[in-house]
Amino acid sequence: MYHAMFLQMKKQLGQVDRWLQAAVAFAEAKKFDPNLFMTFRLAPDQFAFARQVQIACDTAKLGASRLTGKDAPTHADTEQSIEELRARLRSVIAYLDGLTPKDFESAATRVITQPRWEGKTMTGADYFLEHVVPNFYFHLTTTYALLRHNGVDIGKRDFLGTLTQKAPTAA
Amino acid sequence: MYHAMFLQMKKQLGQVDRWLQAAVAFAEAKKFDPNLFMTFRLAPDQFAFARQVQIACDTAKLGASRLTGKDAPTHADTEQSIEELRARLRSVIAYLDGLTPKDFESAATRVITQPRWEGKTMTGADYFLEHVVPNFYFHLTTTYALLRHNGVDIGKRDFLGTLTQKAPTAA
After folding, report:
1. C-alpha distance across the termini of chain A, in Å
2. ipTM value of the model?
3. Which chain A residues are Cβ-neighbours of B43 within 8 angstroms?
């Protein structure tokens, strides 16, 4: 399940790349600079668009790294453009793509911590369910919401991507 | 993992109940009708606030029902107030609370379909990863975003709820 969920996150980050392309196309059609999106916010005390994409990426890569023990690529949080955000997405997608089910064998029982927790710990299982998955989809959906709110032509199918469905069997 | 994820969704729906209470408190302080929130949207062609809460509830309850075979409570989608949305949340929370790990024993291999798929099917495992979890968090986060965008005093901790953390061990 851990590996399958991170493959799902990889798929979702691929969808974000499509939203960013739709944002660029929208900006070109309306003749404004697509990088204006970088600083948009839904509320003045919520992170801006670029930071939402950065954190979605980081939640996936650091979650996988903490649950497998495999080093993740580092990113300096210096992206100034949609194109640079797209490069970050590709970097995290490539990292997730290199993980195997075996890498997650001891994920559930690992002891997880991070600097801001001041010494507190979580089991890998709780960290995954209560922290990684909710935070990942939070920042993903906030990214999507900012684009929808500002008129970019994307919809729910672009959020979910293609579903693994089987055709109806003949009657 | 299935049962644990649905318990996590139960926890998240409990957080939504807190956001709704914060929305009512905000409306009272600002002297407007809290039920004005019911029709707010982030984009004209996106579902309104009340529908976002309804679908978050339905994604959890129908997901659990399809993966376990246990009937879920029905809701008529007639809520006209924040208080009625809170009642729906309580109903779904109670349903999820009654499920056990054993109920999900054959979840991964069940054949799932729904009317709008026109005969197409998904395995329970794919349905859970690609449809239930992303849709649940999508509608949850959109609900949260609408409140944040309109000034309600909630933050990321209110989104996540309390984490299951262990205190630091003595040095």
Report:
1. 34
2. 0.97
3. 148-149, 151
Q: Is the pTM of this model over 0.80?
A: yes
Q: CB–CB of A131/A113 below 8 Å?
A: no
Q: Which of A68, A120, A143, A145 is nearest to B169 (CA)?
A: A120
Distance of CA A79 to the CA centre of its chain: 15
Residue of chain A whose alpha carbon sits nearest to that of B123:
A165
Per-residue pLDDT of chain B (171 residues; tens, 9 = 90+): 899 999 999 999 999 999 999 999 999 999 999 999 999 999 999 999 999 999 999 999 999 999 999 999 999 999 999 999 999 999 999 999 999 999 999 999 999 999 899 999 999 999 999 999 999 999 999 999 999 999 999 999 999 999 999 998 765
Using CB atoms and an 8 Å cut-off, which of residues 45-64 of chain A contact chain B?
46
Long-range contacts of A77-82 (CB under 8 A, 24+ apart): A79/A38, A79/A50, A79/A53, A79/A54, A80/A35, A80/A38, A81/A35, A81/A38, A82/A20, A82/A23, A82/A24, A82/A34, A82/A35, A82/A37, A82/A38
Q: Do A149 and B42 touch (CB under 8 A)?
A: yes
